[in-house]
Amino acid sequence: MRHLLPTLKELTRTDMHIYDESSVQEKLLPRPYTDSDINVTRPVFVRSGTGSAYLYCSFLDQLNLPGEKGLPSTSSAKSTEPDPFPVTPSFFVPVPLISLSMELAQVIPLFAKSSILIVKNDRDEWTGYITASDVMNSLHQAYRLMEAYLETTLETAGSALSLIDEEAKVAYWTSGAENIFSIRKTDIIGQPAANFFPPERLQSLKTLYTGESVYRKQHQPRSDLFALINARPVRLDGRIVGAVAAEVDITTEIRLHQELLHMSSKIQHLEKAVARLHPETDPFARIKGSSPIIRQCLETIRKISTTPATVLIMGESGTGKELFAKAIHDLREPETAPFIAINCGAIPASLFESELFGYEKGAFSGADPKGKKGKIELAEGGTLFLDEIGEMPFELQVKLLRVLQERSYFPVGGTRTKQANCRIIAATNQDLPAMITRNQFREDLYYRLNVINLIIPPLRLRKEDIYELTQTFLQEFSLLYNRHIEVIPPELFKRLFEYDWPGNVRELRNVIERLTILTMDGEIKPEYLPDSLTSAKVNVPSEPEHTVANLKSAGKEVAHAPNVTDSQQESHGPDHLAGVAREAANPSVTFPEQSSGSSYQQQMDAYEARLLLQYLKAAGGNKRTLAKQLGISRATLYNRMNRLGI
């Protein structure tokens, strides 16, 4: 490949003459420029007895080497016989010897001594020579090719690409950058970037000075311009010598969404009325987003919907797994087919079997005398959605496995089997393979469920959907709370983009609801944002279940607090518990350190346990009070604690 640096072997010439020192002593060398027996276009080298190399002066003119280029004539012009000539040191130029194993970077400094170098092999044999002109020509050609490749690649990328050197001057500026910033390449290249943009808004300068790399960060290089930027420092020999940035203009999108949010309340109410009269038939209508990763998920759903196969949906908490399950159901089932959802973590283990399989009359004390249909029977001809499948009691997993294998089951207290005529979709935010290793989930059930796997991306991996989601939630809550939103400042969108959203779409929805409630004058202000968005940059793990608000999955290392009286329980009300929540969010409660010997779930269990411990202490050790204050059932709390071995 000609754009790469040439090797010494590629640069080596072999068209040369070699003489020994004895030829010099015996004056057997031909007269320079006149001897017809030697090709004067080839260099003549002399090997001394010590192994040193010399270039005979007949080649001096062609190489422009220092030395005596003319020889005094010792014969008349009419003489036809070559006259002997004295051999003196001025007829020879020392030439350095190099090895083929040397790097080009080691060879280049030797050209300061001579513009021609002898090449020898590993047996110390002279195999050829290289010249400075050949090296320079090869380097220049490689540079030109590399420059052409680089320029074409950068221009083809389509983004606004720019490069600043270590002096903070613009070294490269693509046509995409010209279009976005309206600055011509001829005007900006070679000039300080700070001459065209406010230095405090230049991410490239920050990257140059600090070495910080950013990816898809919301960026505002000018007051009238918004962009998503990727920036990385350019390093050479461990030193930062520049910074490169790729930017995508999102100003139009921001302004468009701002204009859309200026709609009158009358139009909003009309849209709501129309929606009630004409229900949406598009199964993907409730899934908002147009990012490539979401489009890929929807395409996968279309493929899944052509089969009745069991589907396992995996994704972090708050990503909307049930919406995707409902979309699969709507695509592959008739309009009248039932969609029955059951939360495996919200039902006590003692009642789970009867909820899932139903029971016959008189099956147990307190049972409905007429019996009761289970969720499987209710889902006949449709879809049974098992949410939080990782929370299903271990002893019941084998019964669900039988349903998947045999497509039949026994109701509680029943003696005759019933057929399970429904499709199964399961969802979880947990690491099921890790649970299998801890004997918390059956391996055979996992493989039965995991026929088709659909992974829902977290919001931090599709931030370009934040605008559309924000618009959707604003419309919903402005109608609900009778608020008319007129202005959304750019600083607010900037903070929404910079946040990593550990709670995903659910957290964004809650934030927009909060902003709508607090906005009374039609303008959302940044100070209405919750503390999690206004504080320092959030650093969160890439897995779910780690926020203070998500206490339903808290687990291990909880100390057993003593029992307390009712009066003591009353002293630990919601206000006091909220104070403990703030204390739990304090940096003193840190994430577990990364350990190669522990899985992510084990680390998160330890962290969540510390949060739950503080809540449990606030409730005086009374689990019933704690469950009530957390807004969950006592059975759910016990279920979680039992599953985690507390």
From TrEMBL:
The keyword NADP does not apply. One of its GO terms (molecular function) is ATP binding. GO terms for biological process: regulation of DNA-templated transcription. Signal peptide: none annotated. The keyword Endoplasmic reticulum does not apply. It comes from the Bacteria. Residues 146-218 form the PAS domain. Keywords: ATP-binding, DNA-binding, Nucleotide-binding, Transcription, Transcription regulation. Residues 287-517 form the Sigma-54 factor interaction domain. This is PAS domain S-box-containing protein. It comes from Paenibacillus polysaccharolyticus.
